[in-house]
Amino acid sequence: MKSLYLTIFLLFITLCSKAQNAPTAIATKNPFPTISTLTAWASYNSQEKFNLDIRSLGFKFEEKSVETASTAYTYIRKVTVENINYTDRIVYRIANDNTASIISLVTASTDLVSFYTPQLAGYKTGKCDNEMSKDKKTTCTCYTSDKFAIDVCDERVKLTMGDGNNYFISVAKK
């Protein structure tokens, strides 16, 4: 009888430890930074600091482009979701006078609108005046707070193998 209890006890411990080590659903579903993380990054005004944080999500530095008013750093990561390959792209733009910075994230690998909209409940909804919102195939919702302007867009795109969506979020420090 003792061996039966011992066997049941060991089985119970094994099941509990596997449950604790099981990855969460979001970790296997291509995680993205939260709104609070994006706003923190937009407040950095330091590419070096941003570079350290973004690499922890699997993004790699790809390209630097310098314009008259700002410098943009592009990071990409290749992901596979349900056996389909995607490229996620984040552009971190810093104004040359360090007055503002913008984080732009573009993906087709997950629905960013559904992911970010609940996180923006405390923000005011405003009129969208970005380039993407002017396209008839794109739906944008724009949010503002005292410190940030956030645009979340869903763009319907034609693909060689049918239609699809690109999702876009931009977080700009005012």
For this entry, give a set of tags.
174 residues; alpha+beta; 8-stranded antiparallel sheet; 26% helix; globular
Secondary-structure map:
Blueprint (H helix, E strand, L loop, with lengths): L1 H20 L3 H4 L6 H8 L4 H9 L4 E7 L3 E12 L2 E12 L5 E7 L4 H5 L7 E3 L11 E7 L3 E12 L2 E12 L1
Antiparallel strand pairs: 1-2, 2-3, 3-4, 4-8, 5-6, 6-7, 7-8
Structure characterization notes:
- The chain is of the alpha+beta class and 174 residues long.
- It contains 5 helices and 8 strands; from the N terminus they run H-H-H-H-E-E-E-E-H-E-E-E-E.
- The chain has helices at residues 2-21, 25-28, 35-42, 47-55, 112-116; strands at residues 60-66, 70-81, 84-95, 101-107, 124-126, 138-144, 148-159, 162-173.
- It has an 8-stranded antiparallel beta sheet with strand order 1-2-3-4-8-7-6-5.
- The longest helix is centred in the N-terminal third of the chain and has 20 residues, at 2-21.
- The protein is globular, with a radius of gyration of 21 Å.
- The model is unreliable at 18-28 (pLDDT under 50).
- The number of helical elements comes to 5
Would you list the SSEs in sequence order as H and E?
A: HHHHEEEEHEEEE
Helical percent range? 25-40%
- The termini sit apart by 70 Å
Overall form:
globular
**DSSP strand count:** 8
Strand content: 35-45%
Q: Could you list the spans in which at least 5 consecutive residues all have pLDDT below 50?
A: 18-28
Mean pLDDT across residues: 84
Radius of gyration: 21 Å
Which secondary-structure class do the elements indicate? Answer: alpha+beta
Classify the oligomer. Answer: single chain
Largest sheet: 8 strands, antiparallel
